[in-house]
Design brief:
The chain is α/β, with parallel strands linked by helices. The chain has a twelve-stranded parallel β-sheet with strand order 1-2-3-4-5-6-7-9-11-13-15-17, with no helix packed on it. Strands 8-10-12-14-16-18 form a six-stranded parallel β-sheet, with no helix packed on it. A four-stranded antiparallel β-sheet has the order 19-20-22-21. β21 and β22 form a beta hairpin. The longest helix is centred in the last third of the chain and has 20 residues. The relative contact order is 0.05. The C terminus is likely disordered.
């Protein structure tokens, strides 16, 4: 006995029931790393002033007695690396001063008791390598004091709840080798001090949330052996302290980001993702299609796989003046028109993003040859096309396509529609260089009785278009500028 506690070494025997007769002045009892046999005595609850109980790395069997809940002053309870079975008693939630609870590497069954939500001082919670089932109760994530949560290698099921974001002081989260499913919650980004995140060998789907770019202190991210898909987020290459990234055995596709952790072959793993391209040379992956990648890098537009159809997504800049009105106008116009020389809209989206801001977007059929602007006015020598690639016949056909679209809008779609923003960047070309007119954000829909030439309507006589530039009447003369 030292001070107000016991530390015993070389002890090889059953833990006697006489432990219940120990002095109530004892504040700590350490028997870890011995050969303690049998089960934890029921009388353990009599040592009411015990603050530290270490019984780890022994040969204990049986279950944790319900009387453990009488140790109201207990701050550290370590029972790891034994053969303890049975369920975690709900009475453990009575130990509200508990700061460290380690029950890992045992054979504990049942569910995680919701009563642990009362342990508001809990900093470290270790339950890894047991036989636990059920879901992770949201009460656990309500513990703002929690810095380490380890639940790996159990049989836990269900979603990882959005409430995980309430654990704002979480530094380490390990939930690997369970049966958790659904999408990775974006609210994990609220855990801004998170450094180690292990999620491997579950059934997670979707992708890594964009909000994870806020986890500036993240050092290790392991999401291997899941069902994650889509392109690897480029922001992962920008996380300054990311030292180890494991994306193996998922369904990621597209270009591997450059820079950051992706520069060091020993710092990341992408094996088992069969549709990736690019990356550092040592990976020996095929090069990515340059043209498609340029399209992907255009701001507020993305290229996605929508079933078997490739689509383009136009996301509106809602912070700009008139953006919402433009969205409504474009939706109103597109729902009333259908012509093979107009860009085909697949669906629209009006929702809220992960930050709670308004989100509005339009999904269109993807035009492989991009805009006419890219052909007529290449930005740099690296562009795939230049004006010389358009023959006179191709230019004539494009002009006819655009004229056909305008004729339909003016005379054949029920009500007269004036585009008001026709220019080369709003004329898109498909695989066969067939032209499709797009961008109806400034469209004017005239009433059937007004007629397209009625200049008494104030809305019809106001100059409309890009500030500082108004395209000529039909902009088609641009197709026939000299080639040199």
């Amino acid at each position: 006995m030292v001070g107000h506690g016991y530390k015993i070494n070389g002890f090889k025997s059953l833990l006697p029931n006489s432990i219940a007769n120990f002095s109530t002045t004892i504040t700590w009892l350490t028997l870890d790393g011995n050969y303690v046999l049998g089960s934890i005595p029921l009388g353990i609850g009599n040592i009411v002033n015990l603050r530290t109980l270490y019984l780890s790395t022994n040969m204990l069997v049986g279950s944790i007695p319900d009387s453990i809940g009488k140790l109201f002053n207990l701050e550290k309870l370590l029972l790891l690396t034994n053969n303890i079975s049975g369920e975690i008693p709900s009475s453990i939630g009575n130990i509200t001063r508990l700061g460290i609870l380690d029950l890992s590497i045992n054979m504990i069954e049942g569910t995680i008791p919701v009563s642990l939500g009362h342990c508001t001082n809990l900093r470290e919670f270790h339950l890894g390598d047991n036989h636990l089932t059920g879901d992770i109760p949201q009460e656990i994530f309500g513990l703002s004091s929690l810095t380490i949560l380890i639940l790996s290698q159990n049989y836990l099921t269900g979603f990882l709840l959005q409430e995980v974001g309430n654990s704002k002081n979480l530094e380490r989260l390990e939930i690997s080798k369970n049966k958790l499913f659904g999408e990775i919650p974006a609210t994990l980004s609220n855990c801004q001090v998170l450094e180690f995140l292990y999620m491997m060998a579950n059934l997670f789907e979707g992708t890594i949330p964009e909000s994870f770019q806020q986890l500036k202190g993240l050092q290790v991210l392991d999401v291997s052996h899941n069902n994650l898909s889509r392109q690897i987020p480029s922001f992962l290459s920008e996380l300054p302290f990311l030292l180890n990234l494991n994306l193996s055995y998922n369904m990621f596709d597209g270009e591997i980001p450059n820079g950051g952790v992706f520069r060091n072959i020993g710092a990341f793993s992408i094996v088992g993702n069969k549709k990736l391209c690019g990356g550092i040379k040592v990976l020996q992956l095929p090069a990515c299609p340059a043209k498609d990648l340029k399209e992907m890098r255009q701001p507020f537009k993305w290229i996605l796989k929508f079933g078997e159809l490739t689509v383009a997504v136009k996301v509106l800049k809602l912070h700009e003046c008139g953006a919402i009105k433009s969205f409504k106008t474009e939706c109103e116009a597109l729902k009333n028109i259908c012509h093979h020389n107009l860009v085909k809209v697949i669906t629209s989206c009006s929702s809220i993003d992960f930050k709670g801001n308004d989100f509005k977007a339009l999904v269109f059929e993807f035009m492989k040859n991009r805009s006419l602007e890219k052909w007529l006015h290449p930005i740099s020598f690296s562009e795939q096309h230049d004006p010389n690639h358009l023959t006179f016949v191709q230019r004539l056909n494009i002009a006819i396509d655009v004229a056909s679209a305008l004729d339909y809008l003016h005379h054949h779609c029920g009500v007269a529609i004036v585009h008001c923003h026709l220019k080369p960047s709003n004329i898109l070309l498909d695989d066969n260089l067939c032209a499709h007119v797009g961008d109806f954000g400034l469209t004017r829909i005239l009433s059937a009785t007004t007629g397209i030439s009625n200049h008494h309507q104030s809305s019809s006589i106001r100059i409309r278009g890009t500030v500082g530039y108004v395209a000529p009447g039909n902009c088609l003369y641009l197709l026939f500028i000299p080639l040199h």
